[in-house]
Sequence to fold (316 residues):
Amino acid sequence: MSPPVAVVGGGSFGRSLAQAAARVGQRVLLWSRQPRPMPAVAGDGSIHTVSALPELAEAELLLFAVPSPYVAELADELGRSLDGSHLLVHVSRGLLGDDLHTVSEVLSSRTPCRRVGALAGPLVARNLVEGQPGGAIIGSAFPEVVESVSDAIGGPTLRVYGTDDLMGVEIASALVGLVALALGYAQRLGMGPGTLAVLATRGLAEATRVGEMRGGSARTFAGLAGAGDLIAAVAGDGRPEVEFGRALAEGLGLRAAAERAGAYIEGALLAKQVAAFGRRVGVEVPLSGGLARLMAGELSAEQLAEALMARPAKRE
Fold:
């Protein structure tokens, strides 16, 4: 019997990954701190909820679907049951600290596993559950990681691509999430398509600058992890970051906005981290810096828009 696929995290995205894997015939082990009943599985696979992290060591591929602040603690605990044969892949849109350490760096430093990767692109929980046609990208230096994820969740309705630019994929995924938050905010304020287009393209350019400073390739930001993911957000794929931004624009606080979005939103902390990184390394990050001040209550939406539009126009 083939080893199962493990999913670490029982939130909406973790559960959707488990369902996507079961749909293509995988046996899935799902771990959550607060286990909940799973709906009937569409497909030939199965989902078994487990309560002890060491039980996940039976799997070869482990998919981490937990917010970035909790990854280190889980990696420390789970790492005692893992070895070099395991493959670790995360779906977090977060980065850690003002140096913007990636989740894959945490996983490889706190476990015996070196074959790590990141799953990114225009993926949202609802589409995974419903099996809507779409695509995703895996960043990893190890081809077997890409192949394993493709086998685990890929199928007739989900194309899985691969790249060895893991750093680029992680930075792109995180900052696109931040731009999506800004787009939701702008949409709720009634800003038009032209404004949203400027916001999206300038946000992607900012993400690319940050990514290159961390060692990523600009080409990655033009693909599924960057532009493709952002197009899906603009088109209205129902991602929680957009809803979070809309809630903030309505005057809700960070906690209430997260409850409205129904998910942990990495961008609430990420804007401040990226702004600090930009100051330290000398990279221009006006959108991230403005969003950080906006969420801290230091700037109004109107003041942010004026500040962004007042910046000197440069060559594309």
Remarks:
- The chain has two domains: 5-164, 167-309.
- Residues 166-188 form the longest helix (23 residues).
- Residues 248 and 257 are 6 Å apart (CA to CA).
- DSSP finds 14 helices and eight strands in the chain.
